[in-house]
Design brief:
It is built from 14 helices and 16 strands. It is α/β, with parallel strands linked by helices.
């Protein structure tokens, strides 16, 4: 690439460090860390998962965006969609003069405002092969913050397409990361992909592999989740598994095992390698946060708060993991979800919920409260949530003087 493409930062971390600290640090989170991830507040006791909040990839993306503003103070800056799925971080970037490009009705981005003299930031999720090509044609300076874990998935999917395997992706077909990942197969003639959201959808695919199921019904079910011209009879003979990096790792592994078993039954174990490949592409940070919340749930908790954007995949899966373990769980976007005046709580009740629900009396009887946050949630939003909860409960947190 020429000097119009940047991926390794500008060496300006010292120049932006103070602003990052002011924007995202939290004395409350510091107190949690100092107190072995526990914090008292009158009769309440908070437990914070030991892995939470910003991961390395998010840190890098946010830092790189701040560096870009510093590096190009007089240029127009654009961001392709949200840099991460957190409304507060994206609002900060907008306040810094970075214009967020939204998707058009057809699902693509409108790059008409962008010119060769402008700077365009690519988000942590990455962009599609087609969008990248369009931006290169415009000639704008590109600053690529795509997470390294996402790039690893791209390499895997590319290898599948190169070798004639359909990429079967466990993910959300509408998610930016999965869109970008699926597009990688277009680098090779005949590249194919199919996206399954969960085990139920995976089993529909497995039924077809084993000679059951209706192709027309499948085509309707996966109309928005498969490559153009997808032929179920032709394109499910050789399959390679991959996943959106922020999905539940246990479900991804279970889906891989289910597809492997179906391929074995259909083609025989002796030729399984000719029909099936798999590779765990859950990112380490997602895995660490899921493992940490499971360890936290080994303790008796009265309720669990999961803090982060409602469109954040890794955050919604943390909430789902807690609910599966039978703990009363609320996924809230931030501290403002807690109404100090009424004591009510606005929350997202499940993945893909159409709207928030309000839970009155949600804090009644709660003494041990667990907290975690998705990889796109800054520390200050965790701290603000604890302080707001304490205000509703009428207690003061035990913070250092």
């Amino acid at each position: 690439m020429t000097a119009s493409y940047f991926r390794k930062g500008f060496g300006l971390k010292a120049a932006i460090e103070g602003q990052l600290t002011a924007d995202y640090s939290s004395a409350v989170v510091d107190a949690f860390r100092a107190g072995d991830y526990r914090l008292g507040a009158g009769p309440l006791e908070f437990r914070l998962a030991r892995e939470f909040g910003f991961c390395y990839g998010v840190d890098r993306a946010v830092e790189y965006a701040y560096e870009t503003r510093t590096k190009f103070p007089d240029r127009r800056l654009f961001l392709v969609g949200e840099i991460i799925h957190n409304p507060h971080v994206n609002a900060k970037l907008t306040a810094m003069g970075i214009t967020i490009l939204a998707r058009a009705a057809d699902g693509g981005f409108d790059f008409s405002p962008v010119g060769p003299a402008d700077v365009v930031i690519l988000p942590a999720f990455g962009v599609t092969v087609q969008d990248f090509a369009r931006l290169r044609e415009i000639g704008a300076v590109l600053v690529d913050t795509t997470c390294g874990s996402v790039l690893n998935v791209w390499k895997r999917v590319e290898a599948y397409a190169r070798d004639g395997y359909t990429a079967l992706i466990h993910g959300k077909y509408f998610h930016e990361e999965t869109r970008a990942t699926a597009s990688q197969v277009t680098k090779y003639p005949g590249g194919r992909y199919l996206v399954v959201f969960d085990m139920d959808e995976a089993r529909l695919v497995c039924d077809f592999i084993e000679g059951r199921g209706d192709e027309a019904a499948l085509a309707g079910r996966f109309a928005h989740a498969m490559s153009p011209g997808f032929d179920f009879a032709r394109d499910l003979v050789r399959v390679g598994l991959a996943n959106q990096t922020t999905m539940l790792s246990g479900e991804s592994m279970a889906i891989a095992n289910e597809v492997r078993a179906s391929m074995g039954r259909r083609y025989g174990q002796d030729t399984l390698g000719e029909h099936f490949r798999t590779f765990d592409t859950i990112c380490s940070a997602t895995q660490e946060r899921q493992d940490a919340v499971l360890r936290l749930l080994e303790e008796p908790l009265d309720l669990m708060l999961v803090v982060g954007g409602y469109n954040s995949s890794n955050t919604t899966h943390l909430a789902a993991l807690c609910r599966e373990r039978g703990v009363r769980t609320y996924h809230i976007e931030d501290a403002t979800s807690i109404d100090v005046a009424t004591g009510g709580l606005r929350h997202q009740p499940r993945i893909k919920a159409a709207e928030e629900q309000v839970a009155p009396g949600w804090l009644t009887g709660a003494r041990r409260i667990g907290i975690t946050a998705g990889a796109s949630t800054p520390n200050n939003k965790i701290g603000e949530t604890v302080l707001r909860l304490c205000a509703v409960a009428g207690v003061e947190p035990d913070l250092p003087a």
